[in-house]
Design brief:
Elements (H helix, E strand, L loop, with lengths): L6 H9 L24 H7 L2 E3 L3 H17 E5 L3 E4 L19 H8 L5 H13 L12 H12 L2 H22 E2 L4 E4 L24 E2 L1 H20 L3 H21 L1 E2 L4 E2 L2 E2 L32 H4 L53 H17 L7 H14 L1 E2 L2 E2 L30 H8 L2 E2 L5 E4 L9 E9 L2 E8 L10 E6 L2 E6 L5 E4 L28 E4 L26 E2 L8 E20 L13 E8 L2 E4 L2 E5 L8 E20 L7 E8 L1
Helix pairs in contact: 4-6, 5-7, 6-7, 6-8, 7-8, 8-9, 11-12
Length: about 675
């Protein structure tokens, strides 16, 4: 499914919800009228629907999908879509504001999005967009591509992405591999984890402490394993064996070098001598000022389990005893990133310290890792109840002023984001996951490469019901529901799994269910060129351009062609005519040359009744034709009257070839007009 198609098909996407098997796609998202993006059809068409008895989890789920739309960015017609990390585009970001640090989390979230174009674009952006920076930070690109394939089952997608996976690995080999040690090295800042207890033992607390870390080495292990599996699937058995052997080698080196039997934990190992007697090739607190200290554990020590690197039944699981211990990691809004009572444990009132604050990035990793341990490791250290407690803590942390919210880091004791979400910095930060842990952990859909569907919910047995509806999985439409007494959904009691409307499996209690899922043959059709948005300019040329008859100084018209739409008042990404005294205002979208426009999407602002910015009372649309302005040959408008917080679509009755489009707005009484984006599709 494309984000925008041509002609009448584009308006159909604005009005027609995808069919659901249990939940009402027309009603459920509308429960959350406080969402900024109220394009209810977007949710209905593109995401699995979800409900549970815990409204805080439900609301956070839909907020996190809205977060996806806030960061969705159409870079240019050649590149298509990518995602930002910050709400703005900081100077250290790559093309169109994307940053490689969270790309693994972002791709894991996106694999559940029912829009193949966005998923494909994001996977290839990193190696086709000029100015993309796929290794500016450590990440697990290859693993995330494979994880996406496990959901979409599309071998063509995997075949196109495999060369990118190999290029990424070759870059890591050239830039970060130490052939003597047999591991990859980097500092915490380039893990996205600056000012850690290790970097603070160096002269540069941000970029110091170059070393062999559980993070990057686990990511490389996962990427190697993903390339091996993809190669085998696509018929390269020799290549698969080679990459699998390399993955085994990294695993062995991580276990030997980074596991500390004394403390039962995976730790950072320094690559160089540092100050205060810290010696190269020693782990945290094995040398230096605090040599022999019993602490030194950081949340990164759980990352190996995010990718199931530690072998089971060899005692490594004892590391997890520290997670649910309030004397170590557990906190009301945690977990903490370093264990309490460590000599350098520190909760900072401002960004950016990984010495104790709660970081959603790391919490996501820990939730995924813990779900893997509970699902796949025989052990008695942690339980599904522990996972649920941590997930509830994570949900509770994502709040500000009583509503769902996410930023860069929080105080683990009181949940405050203050000092960490400074203006146009990390508000609504896309640096973590929630959707994927909910689907693969709470609901327990465990993606597999074979024809078995595995579901093992970690949801509490005392819940009376839950439903995840309309999941697109390997060519099938799945619904997973729990109805303890059968009164909620009328599909019987217990756990029920539907595939394409038919019952695939049932169970009387919450637990692991494995069922055969008939494979779907994906047709290898010739790919049609995708629709392109002609109304975007991110600095690659002089056109397109947009001018306004009046713009408020703080809301310039250029915001309308940056490829990103969001409706926030603060921080803004909008044009308004605030302060104008004119009865009408106009915008001119100039393509610089004639362009074949078939569909126009207008993203109107509306800050609510009594506010200064409202959707206009009406608008007129003209095209530049035969040397003059002429009324546009409109076929349909959806919606018929201007509405804010959703796209307003216009299709044309005939093919329009024009170099300019003019919009003229009539404001509502005692209000001004505003938009966040204009899209012109062809």
């Amino acid at each position: 499914m494309r984000l925008s198609l041509l002609g009448a098909a584009a308006l159909a996407l604005l009005t027609t919800p995808a069919s659901a098997q249990v939940l009402d796609a027309r009603v459920l998202p509308e429960r959350y009228g406080w969402l900024d993006n109220r394009d209810w059809g977007w949710y209905a068409r593109r995401i699995p629907l979800f409900e549970s008895p815990e409204r805080s989890i439900d609301s956070t789920y839909y907020y996190r999908w809205q977060l996806v739309t806030k960061h969705l960015t159409y870079g240019d017609p050649a590149t298509g879509y990518t995602f930002t990390e910050f709400i703005d585009r900081p100077f250290w970001s790559g093309a169109y504001g994307a940053i490689s640090c969270p790309l693994g989390h972002q791709m894991y979230e996106l694999r559940w999005l029912k829009d193949a174009r966005i998923v494909r674009d994001f996977a290839r952006y990193w190696f086709t967009a000029p100015g993309a920076q796929p290794r500016s930070y450590s990440n697990w690109y290859g693993d995330a591509v494979w994880a996406t394939y496990l959901v979409n089952g599309d071998r063509a997608y995997l075949g196109r992405a495999l060369p990118f996976m190999k290029r990424q690995l070759a870059g890591w080999d050239a830039e970060r591999y130490d052939s003597i040690v047999g591991l990859y090295h980097w500092d915490g800042l380039h893990d996205g984890m600056e000012r850690s207890i290790n970097s603070r033992q160096t002269d540069d607390i941000d970029e110091g402490a170059d070393g062999y870390r559980p993070t990057l080495n686990s990511y490389i292990f996962a990427d190697l394993r993903a390339i091996a599996r993809a190669s085998a699937l696509l018929g390269d058995s020799a290549g698969a064996r080679s990459y699998a052997e390399r993955a085994d080698s990294i695993r062995a080196r991580v276990l030997r070098e980074l596991w500390d039997p004394r403390r039962g934990f995976f730790l950072h190992q320094f690559a160089h001598d540092e100050k205060d007697g810290v010696r190269a090739r020693t782990r945290t607190w094995d040398s230096g000022k605090y040599a022999g200290n019993a602490h030194g554990r950081e949340l990164i020590g759980y990352v190996p389990w995010q990718f199931e690197l530690p072998p089971p039944n060899q005692g490594y699981e004892r590391a997890w005893a520290a997670l649910m211990d309030t004397a170590r990691f557990l906190a009301p809004f945690g977990p903490t990133t370093a264990e309490r009572h460590d000599p350098l444990f520190y909760i900072s009132p401002r960004c950016c310290w990984w010495s104790g604050n709660s970081w959603p990035y790391a919490t996501t990793q820990t939730l995924v890792a813990l779900a893997n341990v509970v699902n796949d490791y025989p052990q008695d250290v942690v339980t599904k109840r522990d996972w649920m407690e941590l997930f509830r803590i994570y949900t509770r942390t994502q709040r500000k002023n009583g509503r769902p919210y996410i930023a860069e880091a929080a105080n683990p004791d009181d949940g405050s984001w203050e000092g960490h979400d400074t203006f146009q910095h990390s508000e609504h930060y896309f640096h973590s996951g929630y959707i994927d842990p909910l689907i693969t952990g709470l609901i327990g859909l465990r993606p597999r490469a074979d024809d078995s569907l595995e579901v093992n919910p970690l949801a509490p047995g005392e819940w009376k019901y839950f439903a995840l509806d309309g999941v697109e999985y390997r060519g099938h439409r799945l619904t997973i529901l729990w109805d303890r007494d059968g009164t909620r959904y009328g599909r019987g009691t217990g756990l029920t799994i539907l595939a394409d409307g038919r019952v695939l499996a049932t169970a009387p209690r919450l637990g692991r269910v494995v069922a055969y899922l008939k494979p779907v043959q994906f047709l290898e059709l010739e790919e049609r060129p995708p629709a392109v948005n002609l109304a975007v300019n991110n600095g690659r040329g002089a056109y397109p351009w947009v001018t306004a008859s009046w713009s408020a100084p703080s809301t310039p018209a250029f915001a309308l062609i940056d490829g990103n739409y969001r409706y926030d008042r603060d921080p803004p990404n909008r044009w308004t005519d605030s302060g104008s005294v004119n009865a009408k205002e106009s915008l001119v979208l100039d393509f610089g040359a004639p362009r074949p426009v078939e569909t126009l999407l207008l993203y109107f602002l509306d800050d609510g009744a009594g506010s200064a910015i409202r959707a206009p009372a009406s608008y007129a649309l003209e095209i530049w034709e035969n040397g003059r302005w002429a009324r546009a040959p409109e076929k349909a408008r959806v919606p018929a009257r201007p509405e804010g917080h959703r796209p307003n679509g216009v299709t044309f009755a005939r093919r329009v070839l024009t170099s300019r489009i003019r919009l003229t707005f009539v404001p509502r009484p005692r209000a001004w007009v505003g938009l966040t984006e204009i899209e012109a599709w062809a």
